[in-house]
């Protein structure tokens, strides 16, 4: 895939703000037909207007879904299939952090529902379109928080996310930052497993940590003690446009045409937590995740 995306269809989830809007703007600037995934028609329309005005590219469509709701994701995939036969880039960017344990309409803990199950279900429902569009790329936005779940990293010993396959829904143990990071670890590991399954199809899947970026999720993650200083802190973080570079690189760099099943921090390939490379655990997680979204293993 070259930098020129004319004739290419790209979908970005969480396209209404933060990095998602910046990623979508850049892909539109390069000529892609954009499909923005928004939670509401109003926020989708606002993002569409912004992107068309910024790029002059009128080929910007909006589909709406609540990614915490599996039936909504299934309708979204149907809506995409009604409009397009092919998908060339899918950026699974949407993500969220929750202070308290809450359940989705499907009875799933919200971090698990939004940060892991949603991309897994959506991507598998769109695999036919991705394979029809090959060479095609799936770009997952992960988080390096999986390597150290502490919000304030003043002590030396990192606290990596762990995986409890018997408690994926965090019924017995809920610490918000840990559960967020665990969902990102699950996304990464199922991405590795998906890359194996897509061998020979021309569809790649890679995961990137974008860097700490000044977006709404930083407000959601910050402790009450940090809140008064957030305005100042955010000035030292990446801008959404800078944070978007990691996804844009994975989505478009010609040298990554066949690169699949890798983890990047910003634009550099990186080592992910040791547990993530355990194929037996990846496969157990794949099976459990498939069960949770009602798809064959
Ligand atoms: N910012 C960082 O430092 C950082 C670091 C590492 C990884 N990340 C990851 O980067 C990705 C982008 O986040 P961001 O930093 O740009 O934060 P953001 O500004 O909060 O953007 C999150 C996006 O996800 C959407 N979203 C959340 N829940 C949704 C749902 N149930 N249904 C549909 N859409 C939903 C939001 O839509 P609404 O506008 O409707 O809420 C928003 O468009 C996330 O996956 C995040 O975990 C961020």
Bound molecules: NADP nicotinamide-adenine-dinucleotide phosphate
Q: What is the overall silhouette?
A: globular
- Work out the strand percent: 5-15%
Beta-strand segment tally: 8
Terminus-to-terminus distance: 31 Å
Average pLDDT over all residues: 95
| Radius of gyration over C-alpha positions, nearest whole angstrom | 18 Å
Q: Helix- and strand-based class?
A: alpha/beta
Largest sheet: 8 strands, mixed
Describe this structure in words.
This protein is of the alpha/beta class and 297 residues long. Helix content is 42%, strand content 13%. The chain has eleven helices and eight strands. The chain has helices spanning 18-29, 41-55, 70-83, 110-125, 127-132, 176-197, 216-221, 230-235, 240-243, 245-252, 279-293, and strands at 9-13, 33-38, 60-64, 89-92, 136-141, 203-209, 263-265, 268-269. The chain has an eight-stranded mixed β-sheet with strand order 3-2-1-4-5-6-7-8, sandwiched between helices. Helix 6 links the parallel strand 5 and strand 6. Helix 1 (18-29) crosses helix 2, helix 4 (110-125) packs parallel to helix 6 (176-197) and helix 6 crosses helix 11 (279-293). 47% of the residues are buried. It binds NADP nicotinamide-adenine-dinucleotide phosphate. Residues 14, 16-20, 39, 43, 66-68, 93-96, 114, 141, 143, 209-210, 212-213, 215-218 line the site of NADP nicotinamide-adenine-dinucleotide phosphate (NAP).
Secondary structure topology:
Elements: E1 9-13, H1 18-29, E2 33-38, H2 41-55, E3 60-64, H3 70-83, E4 89-92, H4 110-125, H5 127-132, E5 136-141, H6 176-197, E6 203-209, H7 216-221, H8 230-235, H9 240-243, H10 245-252, E7 263-265, E8 268-269, H11 279-293
Parallel strand pairs: 1-2, 1-4, 2-3, 4-5, 5-6, 6-7
Antiparallel strand pairs: 7-8
Bound molecules: NADP nicotinamide-adenine-dinucleotide phosphate.
């Amino acid at each position: 895939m070259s930098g020129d995306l004319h004739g290419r269809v790209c979908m970005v989830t969480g396209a209404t703000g933060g990095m998602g809007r910046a990623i979508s703007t850049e892909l539109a600037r390069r000529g892609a037909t954009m499909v923005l995934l928004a939670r509401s028609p109003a926020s989708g329309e606002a993002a569409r207007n912004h992107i068309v005005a910024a790029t002059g590219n009128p080929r910007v469509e909006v589909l709406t879904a609540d990614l915490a709701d599996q039936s909504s994701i299934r309708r979204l995939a149907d809506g995409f299939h009604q409009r397009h036969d092919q998908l060339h880039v899918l950026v699974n960017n949407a993500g969220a952090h929750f202070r308290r344990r809450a359940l989705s309409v499907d009875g799933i803990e919200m971090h698990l529902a939004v940060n892991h199950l949603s991309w897994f279900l959506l991507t598998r429902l769109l695999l036919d379109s991705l394979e029809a569009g090959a060479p095609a790329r799936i770009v997952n936005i992960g988080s390096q928080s999986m390597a150290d779940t502490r919000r304030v990293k003043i002590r030396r010993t990192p606290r990596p996310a762990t995986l409890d396959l018997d408690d994926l829904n965090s019924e017995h143990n809920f610490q918000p930052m840990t559960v967020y990071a665990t969902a990102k670890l699950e996304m990464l590991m199922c991405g590795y497993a998906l890359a194996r399954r897509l061998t020979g199809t021309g569809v790649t899947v890679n995961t990137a940590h974008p860097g700490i970026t000044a977006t709404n999720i930083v407000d959601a993650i910050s402790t009450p003690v940090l809140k008064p200083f957030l305005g100042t802190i955010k000035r030292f973080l990446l801008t959404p446009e800078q944070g978007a570079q990691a996804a844009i690189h994975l989505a478009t760099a010609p040298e990554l045409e066949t690169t699949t099943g890798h983890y990047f921090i910003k634009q550099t390939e990186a080592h992910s937590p040791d547990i993530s490379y355990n194929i037996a655990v990846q496969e157990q997680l794949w099976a459990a995740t498939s069960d949770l979204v009602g798809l064959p293993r």
